[in-house]
Amino acid sequence: MGAALQVTAFGLALLSTLFLLLATCTDCWMVNADDSLEVSHKCRGLWRECVTNMQDGVRTCDQYDSILADHPVKIVVTRTLMITADLLAGLALATLVLGLDCITFLKEDPYVKLKMCYGAGVLLGAGSILGLIGSMWYAVDVYVERAMLVSHNIFLGVHYDFGWSCWLGMAGSTGCFVASVLLTCCLY
Length: 188
Prior knowledge:
- By secondary structure, this protein is α+β, with helices and mostly antiparallel strands.
- It contains four helices and five strands; from the N terminus they run αββββααβα.
- It has helices at residues 2-25, 73-99, 110-151, 164-186; strands at 30-32, 40-44, 48-53, 59-63, 160-162.
- A five-stranded antiparallel beta sheet has the order 4-3-2-1-5.
- Strand 1 and strand 2 form a beta hairpin.
- The longest helix has 42 residues, at 110-151.
- The chain starts with a helix and ends with a helix.
- The relative contact order is 0.22.
- It is a multi-pass membrane protein.
């Protein structure tokens, strides 16, 4: 039972960590809402903004000036939280690999291997909380920005919604949290 639970938690942690990394690196945190009048698809991410022409499929991207330049708070906070979540999830994954029963590392000391799995669960939990806060921070900020424009009857020509990168960050964070629960609560 313990080995199957470890392998399940490892698979979920691996997939969730990949989701977190993809969410951090991709550019569709905010997308323009579907509108029949639009001739282009706009995506805003943490690192750049891209526009795809719907007629010919040409995609152009504008990099943000610099990592250290003045950016909106939602971008800076989300970048920081997502990068930290990625690092914690990656460290947890490496620790979990060494703590798995099917790996011969420290085979003679199962108590240490169990502690490594528990530590990986704690790291995954911390990473999942940071990733969820980062994703939700960005999503709430997009919603508040849109609600304020609507409440003041301001229409800028583009209406933004949550993009797939934001949803991927939330899914990766949730998966890391479930793997953390499996490793910290269910493994003993």
